[in-house]
Amino acid sequence: MTAVEEPVIVQTPTTPPHLSRLENGNIQLIVKGKPFLMLSGELHNSSLSSAKFMSEVWPAMKAQSINTLLGSVTWETIEPKEGQFDFSELDLVLAGAREHDMHLVLLWFGTWKNGISTYAPGWVKRDVKRFPRVQVLEAGGVKRTVEMVTPLSKECCEADSKAFAALMRHLAEVDSEHNTVLMVQVENETGLLGDSRDRSQRANKAFNEPVPADLLEHLQKTDVHPRFKERFPEIPTSGSHSWDSVFGAGVAANEAFMAYHISSYVGRVAEAGKKEYEIPLYTNTWLNFDDPSQLDLRGVPIVVGGGAEAGVYPSGGPCPHVLDIWRHNTPALDFLAPDLYFHDYETVCRNYTEQKNPLFIPEQRRDENGSRRVWLSYATYGALGASPFGIDTGAETVGREFKLLEQTKEFLLAAAPEDRMGFFFDEEPCDRVPERWTRVFGDVEVIIERAFVFGKAGPGGGMVIHLGNSKFLLVGRGFNASFKSVRKEATFTGILWADEKEVDAQGQLKTLRIFNGDETRSGEFVIMPNDDPDYGGFPIAVTVPARTCIVEVEAYWIAEEEDDR
């Protein structure tokens, strides 16, 4: 078996979790000196508020190879009275996590959660003079106050920043030696619902002021995101310009305005926390869609997909076309992350790995559709983690995939981006998902297709990792792997050797059996079958169900001379 080489990381006993960009192109989370792959899931909103509730959750999650849980810490619970902080329940939760060898990503539900301010303390909600609200326009031009503190509220930003700094300071005091908490999310799915921008008096005054010169300068100097460039191809270089003149009158300018002020607010909160405890910080995104054909709804109401216009989805959140505005205002955030439910999975992965942004998916589907797709995010796009939402009431489906990732994570972490590929096949073929995935590794092209059966082909997913010298690790179910040399002189490519692997008590991959004959169609391709392949009435038992779902295979090619034929 090819040895896995771990990167050499200089680590002191008190070094907190941090991100590392390796020379081979990988971006990894480093925990206690070693790369750490988050096999993660997000809890329901209120689960982490109770250590007693979580006492039954920890072991259930461990049984599905989940090693990291995302859960909320809310402003209203840690600062019920202004200036008085209570972390007693959080400390009990941290103790429970450590007892079960579980890591956490904390979600700071501060001023905003899903575009509204429901998790702000009562003393914030009641005091609209200190903490003024957003106003939106309804039909007929009537203004309505909504439960969202305006991002132009300096006092609320200062209060939120103090609370977040207190949380991070407390984590530094009680968790820096343990590294239980790996990262913290700052706010949640920010943006305004119900209108494209705040219509309050103070917001109108700010909107009528010129676009800040430092933002224009940043957009000129930055190699902006392709989605930004599509929407805003011409950005003025200097001078005084209105939001309408720079970004286009109407909704486009309104969204850019909201993105600027919300990101400035989040940036200040994040900076306050980072000064107290320097672990990775990020914020997440309620995605928009430009075209309904982007969505994989399959019978689900289109409104859940996000919305095509700012205000239907939260206006001003870190969607791809305004990421550059967000990056300008949030240097304390280590990355921006997509919540990914119904959009084209690979398109979103591409959008959020542009500009060397680390990929982390804080929320995604937990059903079979979503579980199959984690292979693409982890293996092709190097995700730090992919986190099905509501994991505490349904972890078994993704657990099947995570158990395989747990066994093979060292190989995945060691592989350079060009040496790994993830893929999946849904229940039925469709135009959105390839039926043939290919990548060239060295001299050999690896071709992934649905697993061969005599009856109806089933779904599948997995990854291929190049171990060097035409050796590959295949992990997953429901696919075939064949090989083709890309050398012009090659006249034949085949399978030299294939082993089914299992993990021993020490966590090492060992050969369980030799694959040949039916399992490789006599050297034509390796079959990674499903648990119950369809025989379609074929009378001979030549299709073997899945066992370990891990195979090491070596491909080879030859070049025959003309005289040898």
Automatic annotation (TrEMBL):
Residues 58-209 form the Glycoside hydrolase family 42 N-terminal domain. It comes from the Eukaryota. SUPFAM superfamilies: (Trans)glycosidases. Keywords: Glycosidase, Hydrolase. Residues 399-526 form the DUF5597 domain. The keyword Zinc-finger does not apply. InterPro entries: DUF5597, GH, Glyco_hydro_42_N. GO terms for cellular component: beta-galactosidase complex. GO terms for biological process: carbohydrate metabolic process. One of its GO terms (molecular function) is beta-galactosidase activity. This is Beta-galactosidase. It comes from Cylindrodendrum hubeiense. The lineage of its organism: Eukaryota, Fungi, Dikarya, Ascomycota, Pezizomycotina.
